[in-house]
Amino acid sequence: MTTTPVITTPPNFVRLNESVSLREPPSSSSPASSSLRPTSIAQGSASGNDNDNDDSNRPLLILCMWMGASPKLVSKYTKHYIELFPSNTILLITCTMPEMFFVSTDRHSKLLRPALDVLLKYRDQEQGMVAGVYSNGGSYCLTQLARLYRESTGGEPLPLQATLFDSCPGSADIQAAIHAMYTTFPPSVTKSPIWATPAWLIAWFTLKVYQLMFAVTGAVDPITSIRKSLLDTTLFDLNNPQRSSFSSSSSSSSSSPPASSSRTFIYSHEDKSVPYLAVEAFVEESKAIGWTVAKHRFEGSHHVAHANLDKERYWGIVAQALRR
């Protein structure tokens, strides 16, 4: 007898498939049960009742969560995003370990098709797009989505006005990859005196096989591929004319062109899944290409858990990075 895994949808979201969910603000819907669909976006948003200047002109917010993020944590993060961006449509993309390691690119592209449909609705609208990306799993989903967008628009890069990178991108370090995979197992496994060691061995064996396969075939490992894709200006629009002025109290690039899209990085020295040096090297690479960058290093926080250390600082950075 087989059982179907329960797929939990975060509050205020409508699930489009097992990987993609959508949340539209109440002011743009009528009634919610039928309007929270990608097709409703084409009709535009109704005027809101709050004091914002123009609720209908808020950018689409794309959230790409980390590999194996639990429904509880996904709901925790989406709750904060809705509080910060109540007038934005939010496109939520989740990623499981099998999707990243065992599912073919073609199959994963099909899973992302509903997300692509939403992006295409925003293609010619004034709102623009911003993204919050978590860990290597979220980075992978974003690069896959950018490829689909480029293919569907005849070669256009994804026009992100601003991107927030939390705990990413990583490097091809095998120990970091093992730790990242291990943390996707539930606490009932990783904290069990019986199952913790077997789980670690499964992660070690799986990634060692992948490492050997890449060495034999000469193929590029997934993390290196993700890093290269995130720097590819045919995938991600470097000079976005919709972008508003970007400033940061942290270290931002003063040499970048004023019209360039912004990239903000949150990371920590203690992160065992994504080495801090890998993030800092990527920051410099992004700056050299022309993105406006800002980096915020936390001391004492762990992988995709920086908000636990300093909630006010973390969400303040998120708001500053993505509000347009």
Automatic annotation (TrEMBL):
Cellular component GO terms held in the UniProt record: nuclear outer membrane
Region (Disordered): 17-54
UniProt KW keywords: Membrane, Nucleus, Transmembrane, Transmembrane helix
Family under the similarity heading: Belongs to the TMEM53 family.
Protein name: Indole-diterpene biosynthesis protein PaxU
Bias (Low complexity): 18-40
InterPro entries reported in the protein's UniProt record: AB_hydrolase_fold, DUF829_TMEM53
Localization terms from the record: Nucleus outer membrane
Transmembrane parts of this sequence: none
One Pfam entry name: DUF829
Listed SUPFAM superfamilies: alpha/beta-Hydrolases
Membrane topology: Single-pass membrane protein
Source domain of life: Eukaryota
